[in-house]
Amino acid sequence: MKVYIAGIDGYLGWPLAQCLAARGHEIAGGDCLLRRRWVTEMGSHSAIPIAPMRERQAAFEKHFGGFTYREGNVQNYAFVKEAFRAFQPDAIVHLAECPSAPYSMIDVHHAVWTQTNNIVSTLNILFAMRDVCPQAHLVKLGTMGEYGTPNLDIPEGSFEIEYRGRTETLPFPRQAGSWYHLSKVHDSHNVAFACKIWGLRSTDIMQGVVFGTRIDEMGDDPRLLTRLDFDEGFGTVINRYCCQAVIGHPLTPFGQGQQRRGFLPLRDSMQCMTLAIENPPGAGEYRVFNQFEEVYNVTELAHKVRAAGEELGLDVKVRRIENPRLEMEEHYYNPDHEHLLDLGYQPTPVDGELHVMLADLMEHRARIEEKRNVLIPAIRWDGTRQRSQFLSEE
Amino acid sequence: MKVYIAGIDGYLGWPLAQCLAARGHEIAGGDCLLRRRWVTEMGSHSAIPIAPMRERQAAFEKHFGGFTYREGNVQNYAFVKEAFRAFQPDAIVHLAECPSAPYSMIDVHHAVWTQTNNIVSTLNILFAMRDVCPQAHLVKLGTMGEYGTPNLDIPEGSFEIEYRGRTETLPFPRQAGSWYHLSKVHDSHNVAFACKIWGLRSTDIMQGVVFGTRIDEMGDDPRLLTRLDFDEGFGTVINRYCCQAVIGHPLTPFGQGQQRRGFLPLRDSMQCMTLAIENPPGAGEYRVFNQFEEVYNVTELAHKVRAAGEELGLDVKVRRIENPRLEMEEHYYNPDHEHLLDLGYQPTPVDGELHVMLADLMEHRARIEEKRNVLIPAIRWDGTRQRSQFLSEE
Q: What is A2-229+264-294+335-348's CATH topology?
């Protein structure tokens, strides 16, 4: 299949290109390299050094036979339309959004930028599909965070309900917890509408929190490695824990530390997106997958990282810090995730993956140590900016 | 109370300023006069001539004692923040969005513009409230169209449901039918979130389709009159029917003509917004009102306009045309609207209001006749642009 990856330079986009090319798919992609700039803006850098796009292209050419790359911004409709016209994709994977809740919470300008960037990029892709490749399949990355933490089971996208004696299948209500997460809610509504009125087909992936440093396809070529962020904006929780562990910094669950979320290793994210791409929905179908390996609470995960670290000879402490977010810290959480299992998803156990990650990151202690100050969050949901303090343990 | 009206030059904003000032409230407002430009872009003009803002200000000064006006764009955060800082409002009524479904469906640029304009304006207002007047009450105009036409009763904003043996109160799922309506859904999610994290208070009004030419406060000063559009972008259905009736053009329900919606006269919209403003919610409360007088189907309304027209000596025909929209043409529709009735809303009967409207519009036959060609829609939901044909009646 011909797969276009919007955001091919990113944490997920770059390994996905390799994973799909290794399976014989033809790849094209675009990026405007914003992720590199956002992390610089956060005062940080990737723990794992990443190659410039030109070197990435050379390595990809050597190992997988090349891909078509054009630098450009998905906020520019002409760029998107021309990319699709030239490549005529069978599938489009949209990874070109700004993926950070804290970044969107910095101030009005970051909130506006995150929402407009994400919404406009998706609208541009939908219109370009309609006009250029209406049979293509859009694989759109959403987030499990769209649902929030309701006191109900969370179905995959929609549910049948009875209300005052009548029955209907409706989208499951969304209660997202940041301007970023809300941008994904807005996208979901927009994508569903485009499928309905134009007969487009889409898989909208409500993805859990991804962690991990590698997929097998990267082998030992450092140019194929993907980034690993540990700043408060772009470092997700397990990735930050692992960076903390390797430099002897305590792992820092927020608040009560009982927040439950769905998580999955990077290699599972690749496996699931591949399953979605290779099993497209029908014309007009808007399909939602809840994509995660298992639900964990963030303290439980800290203990898993500690255990994996101790096996590698690391001395790991866990210390809770003030929660910069406004979120429930103890809550019911029971989301479905059957659709991908039905397609054959084989979950990777978390513990082994943590071992691989820590071993990878131990090689880059100095880079993490250099930016040690980004490991404690300061962007608060109330609009202030102030580093979280450690909480005293009773 | 001190009430700031964003969009004070518009169809609703201008009469609202008069209505509130007549009740003794202190008014300030802003506008960038975009509505005038949009209607020009649609090749049309207001059936009722409207005065330039400077003349409007002079008339307002004479009848109600003046208001503070600054021209500016609510997409500009500095403008919004300074307006609130200078005026210190108790209530903010946000009428500064682009209110047209067909306009948003023209092409990718209009879709992107409508969504970004509407979302950014609301984000700017929320952040400016947080930073300048966190005790103020935001009265935000949404639309009944956010809900779509589910096969269930529609509650006011949220509902208690049972699902797999657990119970929770959740936002009622939204299934909007245009990029414009979706922008309002996005806004609703954003406003609810701001109330939750920052303790802001808001009334989010899911308003039905407004019709009408006047409120009593306008008296006989033509400078106080508000606009009345009849083009496909900015003319709502009853307003277009009435313009069609006075020039002998058939009234044109779309498709089967059994679409059911909530409607309300302009004077009821003013009455309801006044009730919301004068009865603010508590801090942190996000309150939703479904705001309409009654549910009608669009053919039934055409017959009401015909009957009112015949009393005035007009010969009125009703002829269905191809539906440019993609929507259900026969469906269940039973939305609640108790919250405003509980606050004392006294609905105005539709038939008398139609009589007033037709009499007002008969004075402006020549202006409507001049733009007769805008009365048949051409913007189609499938992305093409082609005038609707009359349907043959069996």
A: Rossmann fold (3.40.50)
